[in-house]
Amino acid sequence: MRRLVPHPVLSVVIAVVWLALVNSAAPGHVLLAAVLGLAIPHYSNRYWPDQVVIRRPLRIVDYIAVVAWDILVSNVQVAWLVLFRSGPRLRSVLVTVPIDLPHPTAITVLTGTITMTPGTVSADVAADGRAVLVHCLDADDPDAVVHQIKDRYERRLKEIFA
Amino acid sequence: MATVVEIVVAALIVIGAFFLLVGSLGLAKLPDLMRRLHAPTKATTLGIGATLVASMIAFTAATGSLSVHELLIAVFLFLTAPVTAHMIAKAHMLRHPALQQQLPSPPGTGWATLAPAPVDPEAPRTGEMPPAP
Amino acid sequence: MQLALIALVPLLGALLPPLAMRAGRNVCTVVTAGVTLAALAVLVAAAPAVLRGETVRAGTDWVPQLGLSFRFMLDGLGLFFAGLILGIGLLIIVYARSYLARSEPAGRFFAYLLLFQGAMTGIVISDNVLLLVVFWELTSLSSFLLIGWWSQAPEGRQGARMALIVTGGGGLLLMAGMLLLGQAAGSYELSVILTRGDIVRASPLYIPILLLVLGGAFTKSAQFPFHFWLPHAMAAPTPVSAYLHSATMVKAGVFLLARLWPVLSGTEAWFVVVSTTGLVTMLVGAWIALFKTDLKAILAYSTVSQLGLMTMLLGFGTPEATVACLFHILNHATFKAALFMGAGIVDHETGTRDIRRLGGLVRLMPVTAALSLVAAAAMAGVPLLNGFVSKEMMLAAAYDTHWAGLPWLVPVGATLASLLSVAYAARYGFGVFLGRRRQPAPAAHDPPAAMWAPVAVLVVPVIAIGVAPQLLAGPLVAVAAGSTIAAGSAIPVDLALWHGVNPALLMSVTALVGGVALLAIWAGLDRLRARIGAPDAKALFDRGIDATVAAARATIGALHTESLPRYLAVILATTVAVGTAGFLSGTYAPGTRALLPVGPPSLVAFLALAAASLAVVVVHGRRLLTLVLTGVVGLMVSLAFLKLSAPDLALTQITVEVVTTILMLLALNLLPKRTPLETGRLRRLRDAAIAGAAGLGTAGLAYAVMTRDLATTISDFHIAQAKPGGGGTNVVNVTLVDFRGFDTFGEIIVLCIAALVIVAMLETALRGAAARRLDQLRRSPLAADVHPLVLVVVTRLLLPLALTVGVYIFLRGHNQPGGGFVAGLVVAIALIMQYIASGYGWAADRRRFDAHVLLGAGVLLAGATGLGALLFGRPFLTSAFGHFDLPLVGDVELATAMLFDAGVFLTVVGTVVLSLARIARVEQRVERGTAARSSTAAHNGAARSGAGEA
Amino acid sequence: MIETACMIAIVAISAAALLNLYRLAAGPDVLDRVLALDTLVINAIALVVVAGIWFASPVYFEAGLLFAMVGFLSTVAFCKYLLRGNVIE
Amino acid sequence: MEILIAASIGFLTMAGVYLVLRRHSYPMIVGTAFLSYAVNLFLFAMGRLTLDRPPLVDPAAPGYTDPLPQALVLTAIVISFGMTALIVVLALRGFLETGSDRLDGGPPHEPEAPGADRAGGPA
Amino acid sequence: MRALIVAPIVLPALTAALLVLALRHRLDAQRIVSTVSTGLLVVVAALLYATARSGPPLSYDLGDWPAPFGITLVLDRLSATLVLVTALLGAAVLAYALAGWDRRGRHFHPLFQFQLMGLAGAFLTGDVFNLFVFFEVMLIASYGLLLHGGGARRLNAGLRYVAVNLVGSTLFLFAVGLIYAVTGTLNMADLAAKVATVPAADAALLRTGALLLLVVFALKAALVPLHWWLPGSYGAAPGPVAALFMVMTKVGAYAILRLSTLVFGPQAGAFSDLAAPWLMPVALASLALGAVGVLASRSLVALAGFSVVWSMGSLTAAFGMLDAGGIAAGLYYLIHSTLSGAALFLVADLVGRARGSYADQLVPAPALPRLGSLAVLFFVAAIAVTGLPPLSGFLGKLLVLAATGTAPAAPWIWAMLLATSLVVIVGFARAGSTLFWKTVPGPAPQVGPPTPIGVPIAVCAALVAATALLAAFAGPVTNELAATTRQVLDTEAYRSAVRPMRTTLQGDTGAVDPGAQP
Ligand code: NA
Ligand code: NA
């Protein structure tokens, strides 16, 4: 089974993606989706040497909801800044966010989240993976930013990833 | 019913367009690259997101069957936009020694872009992910 | 056909001597002589008929389209010349056996000699004027080889080249002349042409024909001013000089004049040109001969002079003069060949040909001396020798000739020339054999009989004909003259020793006495000559050739500078000019098609495209920036396709764009990063002018087309047939895989080849100069993380997604935008992403196949799909499709075109992955080189952070 | 109504593209230009999606999808080039 | 629209021609890329311009744009892609072999480290 | 039999694909397959020629789509002749390359097969855009072959060659586009029917397109002033490749001939005078510049290269007459110059190898053994190329001269052809005497490791012998070519072979008028 379906989650994702692509759930497409769901992971298996172990899949939904909300907010905030605050008055700052995440995938998700959310861009990761360099567009209190990231995202990610 | 759909779609389109414009405005207006990065990577995601949702609704309404393939564009963009910004930021830092001096002192071995590389002729060949800490 | 053997036997026999040489020189000589004898036998067999006044003909067609036939005719003139050529040839062969040094490859020599002999006989027996030209040029070629026999000596090479250039060039003129002659006469067969002299002379082409033919004849026969090559041809071994440059080849020109005499002569133009040339040549040659010190040079210039004599006689245009000419040809051949061979013996025995170092040889080599002296006396026109008789006939003919109202001019000139010939002949005889022996005395003696016997054989007729001309030479000359003058019927000739006291005799006596007298004041004359000075023909010729070569080199050097920009400028300017001329040469009316509306995005896109185009011109020095601008253009073009109802094009453009960008970045990493801007203002203006004109042109043409309707187009069929005939609704895709699948087949082969060539090119990049340069490349400060974590993770997540999209694009292609090419690019992009993020080594380790397999399989699959149709008796690439109703799944359409498209897909993936990966592999070298260097140098981060701002 | 919205959107996106062009022209760094090009692609995707809605045509979707894919890749390639010189190593 | 497309073709041709006439391989290659954009658009325009009539057979479609030039352009794009790849590698390979990227036989480029524009700040 | 028409294209293509797929690491196996395939190609070409000469032109509708909607191949005497020449030359070149050239770099055999495919396709296709595709196949394969074996010189020359041809390809597309824009078709036979009906308002556009196409073909044919690329590229190419390239310039000449007889011939009304005024001046210029180049050359391959330009001038002068005599003469000259030029390039290759470090430079070297047989080969090849009797060059020249007989340009052509012939003879004589006669004292130059030389010499000899045979059998050959020419000029026969259906007005989705089918 492991050899036949090396990445079950991926297989499902691919099947779903296929059905989404064709915008159809006709039997033919379901069959094709199944075939692709089996075949493509088989091929890309070699490119996926490490297993991502998701400990608590349900927390993903929670995480997505939090992030989606933050994205909405951040967009409005950034739009505000862009429209009404001229450059020099922006208190931009680079901060270090120490992290402790178990897996590169988790680190990646965190950096992605940081970039998508309020006024922050993850500019670099520490060579040992234990910190993220974050650029804040307009931050009065850099520590608050660090705290928010660790509290809102890192904590949840630790729960999701094994 | 049709009007509600139309209103929603129209609204989403206008919202999307607004954020797209703001994103590009930020790109044009903000004073330096690190700051400019914020505008497009954020505003455009919502901009595109809104138009994509508009498209999903519009097509679903028009054809009567669910149109979700727009989601794929969104998935692609949400996966890739942070990476784009990240890579640009890294390249920017590498190219600006002045900026390197202002960096907060990194923990441990330093920032990935700037840390001393392990001196190993074979190193470039190994593409494995760094081991989990 | 028998007749052809006279020429063919020696030509084909030329193969024998080199083979026979293995059995020794004697066998070789016997074989060569045997070949000549065989040809001679054929000739002799045909002779009786000819002597009866018949013309023997034989041959066959060769190139009827051209009028060139392989036909021969033997009449008196031909028999006369062929006899001379073969007879003297036989003697030369015997002589050459002894003459050639043991170390010399006699086989090759005899082969060349036979080649020449065949060519020469070919000339004189050709019935077709074009065939004659063939043999004519063959004599030039074979003589080139013979003159250059001693190729290690510069004289040999230069003499050979000069002879080839002059006589070969003359051959070209002759070729043109003969073509025109054939056109004027309506036939290329000599036998016909000879009967159409009136027509030819009346033709408007007559003067061109005459001049071209004379050009050929005069060069070959070394007439002034083309005389200079002949003495330099004397660099050849003496048998060659004796054979080619006295007895035979140089007479080809005279033969030609005689051959065409009935056709071309009898006009004022003929008379003026030919006789004047002959007279001048006769005088110039004799004058120069008088002062030469090299024996062969004396003989060579005397030959020039004698050839002038013959030419002059033919130029007179009277039967008497022509008879005299033919008779003198015979006589000259005998005594001049004897003289040359004698000179060769002297050279052979004494080691010198310098008349100033020779003298009194009669005591050392009496036989040679006696024979040579007789021949020299004949040359001088001493009575009782054959030269006297013919020379007197010449003087008689000259006496009767009025040149442009100056009745004395020709007789005086002829007498003067005779006088000079007496002088040089006497100088030759006295200077070499008589007189006192010079120091250092050469220890010479007569050669073996085999060497002098041929000379003796020639001297016999010199005396015999001198004594009894009518008896011995009369019939032959008569029959030759008959076929020259009177179209075959022999005419009465009177070759008498004594014609009574007449002007000719007086002129003869004057010449003899005067010649001897002249010799008495030779030293004074020599000083006079030296003071006058004369242009050295060879120096002039060499300078001419050198100047021509220098001019050619300067021209080519100026034009072919290996400068691509220049080549392209010429090519593009030509294109613009031709295009403009084409447009202006036709009628044009503006179109009436309504214009499409323009919205803001189109305007902005246009602005972006135009700005990027202009910007790229301005900033092309900054290469990376150029690439970004190219990206802008690519984006706008894709959007234009999308807007203008071409979704397939848009998809293709979008995907191609990114692969091209990556490719360029890969290259740019190793290339210089900036292009120095060119300084030349004029050059930039020129380029801008060409570019502007080209831009205006394409824009104007495009606008002209877009504003008019197209009445009919074959693509209506494509739209109509896509679904019913091709089984797909995407007409573009159906066109690509079906209607015009053959184009696509070619197109994937282009991709496949591109990949193969890239592989082959890069294969050698890790060796030699390239590898050294790679090792030396220093890298500027780099980011420390080779494979940024975030990038690695995301691209790996994207891989399966992108593969799914690839399959999607592929499968829908037949009915919706997409297809094998775009799908292939999408998949390739997905794979390349892994290379970029995770590195070459990592990604290469994970690929399933060598990309070569994809390439080969792709082309094979596409080809095999095409071939499949053949099994059903349909043409290549005939597609088939069908609908299948599967349980659960429903209607499924399967088309062979999809298989074909799969071939496209595989090829595309293979090409992209293979090409990019191979470049990447080369770049690993820099990588490792840098790593190796940094491991030896003390590494610190400060060096990196010190990167300057450019 | 949707049509009006689309028209507004298209004008806005065109304006956004003009602003991107301004950044492309102004730079100053090549990275600014890369970022501008990246944003231009994003705007192109939006344009394509809006055009799809306006013309109720499905043919624009794949273009948007591919724009998303390749826009990312070319930006990454430019950055990788600037970071490491070698795009594939 | 026709004017814009014609002008675009003109601009692209102009840039392409100007660049292929440069003395170094890199701009010349970029020039061929521009020429290929120009000719692709040109070839496409030869089927005349049509809005919103993609050549996808649909009973409801009011008409179609001319599909044939599109197919030709596709072939041309693919071929020019292959050619571009080849010439890029050829230029690279020639540079590695000779140390010069000059096309007019002039002296080679001034030596320069790879990545000179990376080390550079604002370019 | 009809299916065989596609074989000269598909056979080498699939052979090459097979070599890439399965045999890329096994040179020996590649050699066998490549040889067998090329042998088969010769047989196929011979069969096709026999077919072509036994009847009217034959068309082959690829994909079974009727002309002009699909792509049509057309086998007529002309295309069959050129395919046969290509196959024969290909076989000779392959035999030569097998002696070691194919070892010097990767992928020789696939590239070689693809090259043959491109050439055959260019000759057989009856579709202008498909002609473009085959031009590209042919060119890109030639890039690979030109670069085969590497080295700085080859890379430099290769870059120039590729760049020039890329510009040419772009131009081709502009031209084809314009022609389609005015006529709505790509099929040559259909074009032939359509041009006569092109309205006056579009005449300027069609003329521009046609002339641009002429420029493209002239570029491929290396006609002055578009010849720049040739001497350098052919000079840098490996010997056997340069020999094979002798067919490539002929593709340009072929295309000029085909288009200016079939499409823009006398039946084309207002368009019938398109090419003629340009061809003669260009031919004269090519003759002049080629000859000057021959005289100026400092190496044997450069000399051979310029002699190609010169011979293309002769060929164009003949084709430029656009009448029966000129075309027949041109065809003869075409075959001759292909064979003799190939022989010359191969000899130059051998000479270069035999002279070690002196290579093929026209400077005297110390005496060398083994140069003797090469001297003979060079001499004979030079005779053939320069047009001296008794080989085919002489007859070719005679035919060209005779063909131009009454044309107004005749005096010019005669004068130029004869004068340049002399210049070329001078150039060859100087070259030959420097290479084979003149020696300088000194130790013999270091020559490379001994390579098998028997087969290469035999190939050269065979090519030279072929020119002799071409001369010896000039009667039957010119008869054949006269028949070929008659067929070339009989455009009606070509069109009725292709049977292009009539297209109806736009918008009528029926598209095909069945009544139009003959
Ligand atoms: Na392109
Ligand atoms: Na060519």
From TrEMBL, chain A:
Protein's cellular compartments: Cell membrane
Q: Which GO terms describe its cellular component?
A: plasma membrane
Identify the stretch annotated as signal peptide in this record: none
Stated membrane topology is:
Multi-pass membrane protein
| Transmembrane intervals | 63-84
The protein's UniProt keywords, in alphabetical order, are:
Cell membrane, Membrane, Transmembrane, Transmembrane helix
> What is an example of a Pfam family matching this protein?
MNHE
What Gene Ontology molecular-function terms does this entry list?
monoatomic cation transmembrane transporter activity
Which family is this sequence assigned to?
Answer: Belongs to the CPA3 antiporters (TC 2.A.63) subunit E family.
Instruction: Tell me what this protein is called.
Output: Na+/H+ antiporter subunit E
Automatic annotation (TrEMBL), chain C:
Q: What single Pfam family name could you report for this chain, choosing any that match? A: Proton_antipo_N
Q: Where in the cell is it found?
A: Cell membrane; Membrane
Q: From what superkingdom does this record's organism come?
A: Bacteria
Q: Can you give the residue ranges of the Na+/H+ antiporter MnhB subunit-related protein domain?
A: 790-913
Q: Where is the MrpA C-terminal/MbhE domain?
A: 682-763
InterPro entries xref list:
CPA3_Na-H_Antiporter_A, MnhB, MrpA_C/MbhD, MrpA_C/MbhE, ND/Mrp_TM, Proton_antipo_N
How does the UniProt record describe the way this protein sits in the membrane? Answer: Multi-pass membrane protein
Keyword Transmembrane attached: yes
Chain spans, region Disordered:
931-950
BP term (GO), one: monoatomic ion transport
Domain NADH-Ubiquinone oxidoreductase (complex I) chain 5 N-terminal positions: 65-110
Q: Does the keyword Acyltransferase apply?
A: no
Q: Which segments constitute the NADH:quinone oxidoreductase/Mrp antiporter transmembrane domain?
A: 126-406
One term under GO cellular component: plasma membrane
GO molecular function (one): antiporter activity
Question: Membrane spanning segments where?
Answer: 32-51, 72-96, 129-150, 162-185, 205-230, 270-291, 298-317, 329-346, 367-388, 408-430, 451-472, 504-525, 567-589, 601-619, 624-644, 650-668, 688-706, 748-766, 786-809, 821-842, 854-877, 897-917
Domain MrpA C-terminal/MbhD: from-to ranges: 609-673
Q: Which UniProt keywords apply?
A: Antiport, Cell membrane, Ion transport, Membrane, Transmembrane, Transmembrane helix, Transport
Where is it chiefly localized? Answer: membrane
Q: Which residues form a coiled coil?
A: none
In its UniProt entry, what is this protein called?
A: Monovalent cation/H+ antiporter subunit A
**Source organism:** Rhodoplanes serenus
Automatic annotation (TrEMBL), chain D:
> Which InterPro entries does its entry note?
MrpF/PhaF-like (IPR007208)
Instruction: Look up the domain of life of the source.
Output: Bacteria
- What species is this protein from? Rhodoplanes serenus
Protein name stated in the entry? K+/H+ antiporter subunit F
- Where found? Cell membrane
Task: Return the GO cellular component terms, semicolon-separated.
Answer: plasma membrane
User: Which parts pass through the membrane?
Assistant: 6-22, 34-57, 63-83
Q: How does it sit in the membrane?
A: Multi-pass membrane protein
Coiled coil (UniProt feature): none
Q: Does the keyword Acyltransferase apply?
A: no
Pfam families to which the protein is assigned, alphabetical: MrpF_PhaF
Q: Which gene encodes it?
A: mrpF
Which protein family is named in the record? Belongs to the CPA3 antiporters (TC 2.A.63) subunit F family.
Gene Ontology molecular function, alphabetical: sodium:proton antiporter activity
Alphabetically ordered keywords of this record: Antiport, Cell membrane, Ion transport, Membrane, Transmembrane, Transmembrane helix, Transport
UniProtKB/TrEMBL annotation, chain E:
Assign the protein's first listed, main location to one coarse class.
Answer: membrane
- Where are the compositionally biased (Basic and acidic residues) regions? 100-112
A GO cellular-component term linked to this record: plasma membrane
Q: Which residues cross the membrane?
A: 6-21, 28-51, 71-92
Query: Which Pfam families did the record assign?
Result: Oxidored_q2 (PF00420)
Lineage: superkingdom: Bacteria
Instruction: Recite the UniProt keywords alphabetically.
Output: Cell membrane, Membrane, Transmembrane, Transmembrane helix
Extract the ranges annotated as region (Disordered): 100-123
Q: Where in the cell is it found?
A: Cell membrane
Instruction: Report how it sits in the membrane.
Output: Multi-pass membrane protein
Spell out the family assignment given in the record's similarity comment: Belongs to the CPA3 antiporters (TC 2.A.63) subunit C family.
| Name of the molecule in the record | Na(+)/H(+) antiporter subunit C
Species of origin: Rhodoplanes serenus
Species lineage, top-down? Answer: Bacteria, Pseudomonadati, Pseudomonadota, Alphaproteobacteria, Hyphomicrobiales
- Gene name of the record: mrpC
